[in-house]
Amino acid sequence: MFAEAEADPSLSKDEFKPLEARLRVALLNAQYERLNKAEKSLLVVVAGVDGAGKGATVNLLNEWMDPRHIRTLAYGPPESEELERPPFWRYWNDLPPKGSMGIVFGSWYTPLILETIRKKPNQEAIEAQAAAIRRFEAMLAAEGVQIIKLWFHLSAKAQKDRAQRLLASPETSWQVSPVDLKVNKKFDRIRAGGQIVLNHTDSGHAPWVVIPSADENMRAARTAEAVLAAMRQRGAPRIPQSFLAHASPARIVDRLGQLDYDAKIDKDDYESELGLLQGRLARAARSKKFQERSLVLVFEGQDAAGKGGAIRRVTHALDARQFDITPVAAPNSYELSRPYLWRFWRHVPRHGRVAIFDRSWYGRVLVERVEKLTAPANWRRAYGEINDFEQQLTASGAIVLKFWLAVTEDVQLERFKEREKSPFKNFKITPDDWRNREKWKDYAAAANEMMTRTDVAHAPWHLVSANDKRYARLQVLRHIVETIEDQL
Questions:
Q1: Which of 79, 120, 226, 430 has the most neighbouring CB atoms within 10 Å?
Q2: 260 and 135 share a domain?
Q3: Where is the Polyphosphate kinase-2-related domain (predicted)?
């Protein structure tokens, strides 16, 4: 794997000069072609032996190409709000749009690399981290993010000689870090760790390329050739099923059909219980223990099922500075230029905060499925991707609750007519609402399958009969309060 790189091959100046000229022209042409088509983005992940010239090579790439369309994304140890969200949050946040390129230092590989080079690596941790990386990269690749990973490598002697050479001159000594100077003592462990990383995470849709790095001309040429080859690649990659997140197979149950739609509550009982539940929620959300957690509430359901009213009864108990409500409509062009989960990752709350989604990422397996806005392969794959997303949320301290507010067709029709007549509500009714009624059975089937495949212990679905709005609001509040109190 590293044999060629550790032989420290080189390119003479005479060999490199004409090659450089050709590569610079080809890279620029490929870059502008991709910008014009805007079909895929490109992530270049930079890793490898410290002191191998990674930074200098990336600087050269920016000189050879148009740097206005390249984002260099450098990550150190997570800090402040990053520690309060899932580890992949910061990488999702920074994804470049289609047509452009991101060069990633200190990537999602850092924890895995550090684990593999320990004196006594934890094999279970290595397997778990590698599996999480494979799922992350598979989803990105399936959503139009092209990934190429460069491992810069050289012999132990060449690494040591390079550091000493740079240190000898005041003009270049700044390029040598304390970490670079320690590499030689741990070179065998770093080499072995690199082999583990590459073996566990190399794939056709996110390949590793080893860059011989002892000679700067060879390093520059091989890096440029690898990036150029990636930029010229056509078509969508084939992603093996083993790399994808999966939803567990299950028999689809008609949960919507099993609801008691006659459930209701007396107005006086509603008022008294509403106040009690809101008081409990207010205390829980303001408690010291909640400052180490966050709350993610997802509201889905048929049109006119009362999602907005239920949300208002929840937020009435919260400090306005503590929560954010994200109403979800069809994605705009800015959002469509990135993977579909990207716009939801941006709203993942930090500890002590509440994120409320009025519609959500489940649009992929509901409206996008029923209205044929995405290919069947995409929405079928999404169940596992959504489960993986929500598992990451809960692993980082979020309490995730999902509500489906359900009404019958006749009650929905009554509410539609009421909205048309009311000057305060007629803005809520649209031609799409009426058109969606014609696909009632299709939406019900999609909802039942969605709940079967994504109702998991760490992020459960709560189906709420909403023919009576007061009953539905109390049910929502009760589930929230009891869950928070149980988990704090």
A1: 226
A2: no
A3: 11-233, 265-487
